[in-house]
Amino acid sequence: MNFNTNQTHPIINNSREYVYYKKYISIHSEDRDMSKYPNSSQFDIELPEDYLNVISVRLSDWSFPANYNTFSPLTTNVDMTFNINKPYNPADYGYSDPLQDAIFQALNSNINNNFTIQISTGFYNPTQMITELTNRFNEVVSIFIADYFNLNGYSSLISQFNSSGQYNQFIIVYNEVAQNIWFGNKSSSFILTNQTSVAKSAMSDSIRCNNPILPDFSNWGLPAYLGLDRTNDTAIEQTNNSARFYYGDVNAGDNGYWLTSDLSGASTYYFAATYKINLMGNAYMYLDIDLLNCIDETCPYTMNNFTQTTNKTNGIVNSSFAKIAVPTTPVSQWFDGNAGPYKLFLPPAERIRRLKIKLRYHNGQIVDFGVFNYSFTIEFELYSPQQLKNYKVFQTQNGVALPPFR
C-alpha cells in the first residue's frame, strides 16, 4: 500500500483566536439515579454534552423547598434531661393522701437519676415548643411513676393516678416580651441537667458515621436552642410571685400568674432560660461540587491538640462552590439568583462532563429535603477556538461601490 505524503495544502497556523460565550445547564434533583442516590442532597449527574475550554463556572439561579427540620436526631438536638431533686412530700405539711404519698415514694427513689425526654422531629413555633416540652416532661415522669407502682405494690392506685390526670406538675411557658422560656413545677424542685451526655439512637449514630457533623459550641443540643447554658440549671423557689409575667395573661384570665400550686402547702419552683429561644435553625447552606469548589471556609473551633498548640487555622481551602441563604421558614419555596463566587480555570479546563453534588450545612450535616425536589442553573463561560479568517464586505451608495471595510 502506497501513501502519498505530498500535498499542496498549506498548514493552517493556530490563530490563537477564540469565541467567548456562555452556556447554561439546568439541573433538577429528580433527574438523578434515585436507586443509587436516594437522598437528593448528595448525587452524581452526567451533563448533556462535553463542556470544552471552560474558563469559569458559577451558580446562576436556584429554587429550593423550605421544608427542613430544625429539630431532628440528625442534628442531635431533640433530647434533654432533668431530675427532680426535691419531690413534694405531703407529710412535710401535715397532710396525708395515699396517692400523693405513693408518688413521693416513687420520685424520692429516683432523686439521683435523670429523666430523659425526646421531642418530635420537625419545625416549631414558640407556642408549639412549650406545649411539647410540658407534655414530654410530665409524660416521662408519669411513665416512671406507673412503673414504680406496678413493681412496688401500689398497683391499686394506678386507676386513681390515671383518672387524676397522672403527673401534671410541670408547666413550661414562653415569655413573649423577653422571648425566653420559663420552666416551672407546681410542687417539686428540679434541675435541668444540661451537662449530661444523652445517648443517641443507633439509627442517628449510623447517619452521623456516614455524614460526620463537626463539633459546635453554639448549637450543641436541644438546651442550646431553648436558651440554656451547658451547665446544670437548678430551679429556685418562687417567693412574692417572682415568676409572674406582668405584661398580661399567659393562659386566658390568669393575669400573668402562670405558676400556682394545686397541692396542699406546696411551694412552686421555676427557672428562666438565660437567653432567647432559637427555633430558626441554619441560616445558610453550602453547595459542594467536586473540582469546582472555590470558597474557603472556616471551621467550628475544636478543643484539640492542634488548636491548643498551634496558631494555624483549622479552616478549609476550596471548601464549597456556593453559599446559599435560607430566607424563609417551612412550608414554602424560595427562589434566588446571581451568586457571587465563581470557579476560575487558568488555563481553561479541557473538558467537564460529570458533576458530583452535595448540599450541606456549615457543620457538615447533609440538608434533608425529604421527598421534595429542587433545581438550580449553572453558568459555564467557554472559549471556542476559531481559524483566522478575513472578510471583505462592500457597500454601495447610489449604485457606486464604496471601499471595502473589514
What are the defining features of this structure?
406 residues; 6 helices; four-stranded antiparallel sheet; elongated; alpha+beta; 2 domains; seven-stranded antiparallel sheet; Jelly Rolls; single chain
Compile the SSE list and pairings.
Elements: E1 17-28, E2 42-66, E3 79-86, H1 98-108, E4 115-118, H2 126-151, H3 158-163, E5 170-175, E6 180-185, E7 189-192, H4 202-210, H5 222-225, E8 233-234, E9 236-237, E10 269-272, E11 284-289, E12 295-297, H6 305-309, E13 316-320, E14 322-325, E15 332-337, E16 342-360, E17 375-386, E18 396-397, E19 400-401
Antiparallel strand pairs: 1-17, 2-15, 2-16, 2-17, 3-4, 3-7, 5-6, 6-10, 7-8, 9-10, 11-14, 11-16, 12-13, 18-19
Describe this structure in words.
- The chain has 406 residues and is an alpha+beta fold.
- The chain has two domains: 17-68 and 282-386, Jelly Rolls (Sandwich), CATH 2.60.120; 73-272, no CATH class.
- Helices cover 15% and strands 33% of the residues.
- The chain has six helices and 19 strands.
- It has helices at 98-108, 126-151, 158-163, 202-210, 222-225, 305-309; strands at 17-28, 42-66, 79-86, 115-118, 170-175, 180-185, 189-192, 233-234, 236-237, 269-272, 284-289, 295-297, 316-320, 322-325, 332-337, 342-360, 375-386, 396-397, 400-401.
- The strands form five sheets. Strands 1, 2, 11, 14, 15, 16 and 17 form a seven-stranded antiparallel sheet that branches. A four-stranded antiparallel sheet has the order 4-3-7-8, covered by helices on one side.
- Helix 1 (98-108) crosses helix 2 (126-151).
- It is elongated and about 120 Å long.
- Residues 198-208 have low confidence and may be disordered.
